[in-house]
Amino acid sequence: MTLKTRLITGTLTSAMLIAGTAQADRADWPENFTVGTASQGGTYFVYGSGWANLIADELGLSGGGEVTGGPNQNLALVHGGDVAFGLTTMGPAADAVAGESSLAPGVPMDNVCALFPMYETPFSITALADSGIESISDIPDGASIGFGPAASTSDTYFPAMLETLGVEFDRRNGGWNDLGGQLQDGLIDVIAFAAGIPIPAVSQLEVQTDVNIIEFTEEEQAKVMEEFPVSAFEIPASTYETLEEDARAVSMWNFTIAGCDLPEDFVYEVTKLSMENNDKMRDIHRSAEFSVPENLKYNTVLPFHPGAVRWYEENGYEIPEDLKL
Questions:
Q1: Angle made by CA atoms 169, 171, 176, in degrees to the nearest 5
Q2: Which homologous superfamily is 32-118+253-323 in?
Q3: Which whole-number Å values give the CA distances from 96 to 46, 89, 110, 291, in the listed order?
Q4: Are 186 and 129 a contacting pair, CB within 8 Å?
Q5: Which of 73, 71, 199 is nearest to 124 (CA)?
Q6: Which pick of 46, 226, 283, 312 has the fewest CB atoms within 10 Å?
Q7: 121-252 domain in CATH 3.40.190.10?
Q8: How do residues 34-50 score in pLDDT, each as one tens digit?
Q9: Ordered DSSP codes for 271-291
């Protein structure tokens, strides 16, 4: 055998070994996957469905987003293995870990792991401009308020927030697109949104009619922050055509989640893809500009999946020991 032949043979053998290893690494990967999102018309649906398509396309798998009731249900679905991935907020996540989820009281959800930060969810209020409602204190007693899908983050926290602020209301549930239509038709008075901005349903309403986006006063903001797991937030004026200046609000962080029993190599590749391609993530929804490793610190509740931990540590990000499995 000549030197040239040996070199070619050695190169081919190495290539085959690498290819074989790559194939072996995928041996325990799922053939397909589902991402639990929320109702159509909300940011979760747009973000989650787009992210699912990105994973599927880049990793050569079959996968997609699924309409769900939102963060609470996504936690339960991931915990039970009904979906591989989901989107949630830190408030419902803390309740789920403690066994205090409204969907499964007394059942600690210990098969839910964090992947990466998404964005902050502002709690914002929208009414028709001709309603005369320009502040929270303007909301009349008995007003019908849409809080999103039942057991969603919005439905879990916003009613209690408004009760804390002295608002008396008739509670309504539904998907964001449906509630937007009801508001426009005069069937409800207000929508209390908890969703990443810009909220598609609000953007659509702005095109079709005049709306008021109602901000919290400083006192209202401070009172809500004392009572609930939220932080101060300002909705930038550039978010909606209706806004002439930044609007004061409160917010809660969102994270993607995965079943803790998913294969480590699979989750490593999903995390790598998501964290190393923020331009593609922003193409899905502009709120993904905050979907960066620097925001890992906002999860203090869920353990990170071992596959995610491996990517973060390889890239110089520290995961607290109490958030590792």
A1: 125
A2: Periplasmic binding protein-like II (3.40.190.10)
A3: 24, 11, 8, 23
A4: no
A5: 199
A6: 226
A7: yes
A8: 999 998 888 899 999 99
A9: HHHHHS-HHHHHHH-GGGGG-
